[in-house]
Amino acid sequence: MSVVHVPETDVLRRQDPELAEILYGERERQATTLQLVAAENFTSPAVLAALGSSLANKYAEGYPGARHHGGCEIVDVAERIAVDRAKALFGADHANVQAHSGSSAVLAAYAALLRPGDTVLALGLPYGGHLTHGSPANFSGRWFDFVPYGVDAETGLIDYEQVRTLARTHRPKAIVCGSIAYPRHIDYAFFREVADEAGAHLIADAAHPIGLVAGGAAPSPVPYADVVCATTHKVLRGPRGGMILCGSELAERVDRAVFPFTQGGAQMHTIAAKAVAFGEAATPAFAAYTHQVVANARVLAAGLAAEGLHVTTGGTDTHLITADPAPLGVDGRAARGLLAAAGIVLDCCALPHAHDRGLRLGTAAVTTQGMREGEMARVSALMARVLRQETAAQRARAEVRELTGAFAPYPG
Ligand SMILES: Cc1ncc(COP(=O)(O)O)c(C=O)c1O
Fold first, then answer.
1. Distance from the alpha carbon of residue 244 to the mean position of ligand 1, in angstroms
2. Protein residue closest via CA to atom 5 of ligand 1
3. In the chain, at which end, N or C, are there fewer CB atoms within 10 A of the end residue's CB?
4. Main site of residence (predicted)?
5. What range defines the domain where residue 66 resides?
C-alpha cells in the first residue's frame, strides 16, 4: 500500500500547520505503537481517498433516484454500487449503507421493528452487551424494557438455556444477539429457534464479526436474523460507519427507519468509501486476511494464557480476546496503563462475573500490517514481561518500535 494523501496533507500543512501537526502526530502514533484495540483497523489508501474526496461536499437526503436535493445523479451511482456490493458480499436481499455508525444502525433496527416500551432480550452489559443493548445511559435503556441474559460463570460462554427460559417468561418483541467482547462464534440458529418460539424478531448486532463473515472466517447471521446491524470499520476494514442487512419484506421499513426517522442527509464520501471496502472484502486476499486474523488471535490468546493471564472462554474463534491479568498481579486498568507506556494500545473491559475489569484486545490491525503467528507469540511474551514489570517501559517501547518498523501500516 502507498500513501495517497501526501498532496492533501501538504495543503493542510501550508494552511493550518497546527492541525497538520496533529494529523502527522496521530499517523506517527499509529505507525510506531501496537494497535490492539479490537474495534480498530487500518483502512486502505483507496478507502481513505474516497473519504477525503469531493463527495464530502454533497448533500443527499433520501435514496438513489428519490433525493430531496439536486445534483445527486453521480452520488446515486456510488450508493447503488455500495448497496449491490454489500448484498452480494453477504448474500442479503437488502442492504442499507446510510447508517452513520453501528449505534445508528441499531437505533434504526429498533425503530423499524419496535415501539417504545417493548420488551427486548439482549446480552447484559456486564457480560459484553453494547450500550445500545439496554444501557440506562443510552436511548435503548430509556425507551425499551431490556431483559439481560448472561454468560456461564465457569465457561464464559453464552448461557443459551437462560436465553430460552427468559424468552419463554418475558415474551420479548425482539431478541438481540451480538457483543462488544464475546470472543466465540454465536449460535445464530439457536437464537432463531428461540425467537420463533417467542414470536420475537431476531436482531443480530454483528458489528464485530461482520468482517470475518465477509471473508468466510465466521458464520453468517444473515440467513437467521430478521435484521443484521453492523459497523464497516472493524475487521471489515472500511470507513467508520454502519450498515443494515435484511430480507426484502423489511427493506422499506428499515430504509424509512434510517431516513427520515433517525437520520438526515447521507454521507456520500463515507458511502463511496464503504463501496470501496466492500469491493476489497470480496477478494481472495481479504478472505485470506480474515483467516489470518483468527489464526493470529488464537496464537495471541494461547500465548497470554501460557503466561498466566486468565483468557475468557479459554481462547477465541474470532479477532477478539478478553483476559484477566490479575494472576500477574495487576488489574485491568493498571495493566492498560503499563501496556500503554510500553506502546501497546488496547482497551479495558468488563469481565463476566468478576469485580475487576479485564483487558480486551484484537488482531485486525496488526494483521493488516502483515504480522503473523511469530509476531503474535512475541507480542504475548512482551506483554507478560511488561505486566510483570520485568521489562521497563522504555525498553519495551524500543521493542515495539522495532516490530512496527518492520510492519508499517502505510509503507512508502
Ligand atoms: C456490538 C456493537 N454494537 C454497536 C457498536 C457501535 O458502533 P459505533 O461505535 O460505530 O456506534 C459497537 C461498537 O464497537 C459494537 O461492538
1. 13
2. 102
3. C
4. cytoplasm
5. 54-281
Q: Is 360 helix (H, G, I), strand (E, B) or coil?
A: strand
Which residue numbers are catalytic? 59, 61, 205, 231, 234, 240
- Which string of DSSP letters, residue by residue, matches 80-129? HHHHHHHHHHHT-SEEE---SSHHHHHHHHHHHH--TT-EEEEE-GGGT-
Say if residue 309 is in the same domain as residue 222: no
- The total domain count for the chain is 2
pTM for this one?
0.96
Same domain, 324 and 253: no
378 domain residue, yes or no: yes
Is 3's pLDDT higher than 60? no
340 SS3 class: helix
- φ, ψ of residue 160 to 5 degrees: the values are -60, -35
Give the pLDDT band (50/70/90) at residue 69: very high
Residue 121 forms part of a structural domain: yes
- In Å, the largest CA–CA distance within the chain is 64
> Which residues have CB under 6 Å of ligand 1?
39, 101-103, 106, 130, 132, 178-180, 205, 207-208, 231, 242
